[in-house]
User: Fold these one by one.
Assistant:
Number 1:
Amino acid sequence: ELKVEQNPLFLSMQEGKNYTIYCNYSTTSDRLYWYRQDPGKSLESLFVLLSNGAVKQEGRLMASLDTKARLSTLHITAAVHDLSATYFCAVDMDGQNFVFGPGTRLSVLP
Amino acid sequence: DGGITQSPKYLFRKEGQNVTLSCEQNLNHDAMYWYRQDPGQGLRLIYYSQIVNDFQKGDIAEGYSVSREKKESFPLTVTSAQKNPTAFYLCASSIGGRPLTQYFGPGTRLTVL
């Protein structure tokens, strides 16, 4: 059974600081997804990482994938309040459905 | 405007009633999914469908039923057998095969009174 874990589950950080969210998964997969969810809202796709060593960046967010370690990271650079949200990683289990991590709730404080 | 719509946005149900949540997409996607999200939790898969007239149970299918009679529609019925149905329900769709991502609808918040 595929399990996806995220660390930390809660993150409170000051504006301007850097931090990294980690996503570990239990079985082999070469594809990983990151989503953002604002309170009471739906999920928005952020990144799709398709192979080992893949790195993608959008604004202050950068995601990477290490399939050998079964680890993805979401790095936040110089955080701003607008990044406050819950971030989910998901793994493509068998090409037919996704397994989501529990989410990391990020609060960026002024 | 292409996208996924869910209705209603809020739904209240009395205990013992069945309710149906609507999900429609005009993205011409083959695959559709239903997830349940409890407060402060991640998403759990209820049912998914890769093609019309075919669907599979996810991790928490008990107390739910679905149909896929049309490509663009994937309604979810929450039956009275679902003991704790109060949750946020999200529908998603993706292209067939191995998709690059899932696209999510705005969600339906179901409350049992």
Number 2:
Amino acid sequence: GAVVSQHPSRVICKSGTSVKIECRSLDFQATTMFWYRQFPKQSLMLMATSNEGSKATYEQGVEKDKFLINHASLTLSTLTVTSAHPEDSSFYICSATLAISTDTQYFGPGTRLTVL
Amino acid sequence: SQQGEEDPQALSIQEGENATMNCSYKTSINNLQWYRQNSGRGLVHLILIRSNEREKHSGRLRVTLDTSKKSSSLLITASRAADTASYFCATVPPAQKLVFGQGTRLTINP
């Protein structure tokens, strides 16, 4: 159980376009979802915390107007990279948990974004 | 700021040998978790150890936690080629979210 999916798994886009990434909890209701960014051979950096029905909480240094997060239901959160630039190219990973501050986060398989 | 610092950054061993990875952190924690990431994939949760626990086992995995030294270790016994991956420790400070270390890239040579 506790499977999280992401779509798409890989996306290539032109500079200036917007890209939407979906994160779904397939077999459980996720009260909280997290969005991470990972550069090659580096660790995961938390971008924002998303709670169903409320505005996301962004980490320091993350532009909320650049990375739009919507958590419309208990099983779906979306990350939209607006007006993408080559420096936005990265591996984006979401995770979901049943409780915000305890125990395990269940991670999606990640989305590789390449901005040309 | 990131809490976890992992050592070594890269480790290459022969199949069948044991692999030990270490993680140090800076502030108090509720629990510490270890994750595995295969290249280009998401993270897989391996094991969680709480601040009041000192050792935990799961199959070929053994995790220790020393809160006085603010450190943890992950031991993989009888390594297999399929264990090749990056391993991350993640700490959970009180009332806060996962903070990941830089990770250890483990290569198991057949």
